[in-house]
Amino acid sequence: MSLRRYLILLLFCAGTFTKASAQSDLHYTMFLYNKLLYNPGYTGSRDVTSINACYRNQWTGINGAPKTFNVTLDAPVGNYMRPFRKVAAGGSISSESIGVERYTNLMGYYAYRLRIKDMVLSMGLRGGLKTYSADYGQLNLSQMNDATFTRDVRGALLPNAGAGVYLYGENFYAGVSVPNLFQNYYDKTQSLASVAKEIRGYYGCAGYVFTVNDIVKIEPQVLMRYAGNGKYNLPFNGDLNVSGIFYDRLLVGVTYRTDMSFEGIVHIQATRNINVGYAYDYLVSGLRQYDKGTHEIVVGFDLIRDNSKYVTPRIIRAF
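Below the sequence we write its predicted structure tokens.
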């Protein structure tokens, strides 16, 4: 990969709020099924043991474009026969490659939940480590003696922590969070210090389910993001989604992302325990001439030990 292409790729990643050398948060089209990654207050909100895996192949056709994968697990803690458990816990592992850079995130989650009438207010924390590596030797430099790119980074450890609040009821949810409070340096090389610092991201999300009839439900929802590290600040970026839920088993949705892209989502509750989803991103920005689309796949498994939690076979959760 040439240095020029690598830097252009990082600039596009920063502009679309995907992680670059100055970015710290993972981003997914199916954010409604990955809330744990950006809001620890979501921990245990499904009231069952949930395991979810997601793979995202971004901007196919572009050499070095981001590829991400994550697995999350979360559940309420305590006697599962209790109608409500105040404490929830979980964990996640996430990895991403972009150009010559590699990231791996290991996170633990904790949430304390309060029932307020027919709502639940969940306050969550997360903490863990990220490893960062950069193989600059793969770059085709225009100046081969450029000292900035002569020292590879191998397994740098970057600790971090985050916090979030998540409020939800039967038909709605809302939350705010800061997934990464610390602004670590990916690379402490002086010439890169201004651009190799993690950017702190701020998230806000909300959604509401409208029941049209016994067959159809409509759910509009939004995820807003802002990031800055004092020196570099990215513009507000948001996903505006509208989804239709049919027979409580099939979800079909469309999303507009303010960085000029559209996304289609299909999600199916295949069995009581297993759900699968697919999303496709279509860019309408200048990068479209190089991009062949972004693909995202989600697979989830719910360990349901108390059958009374679901009184009918139609068990899809809208959020």
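The helical segments are 3-15, 35-38.
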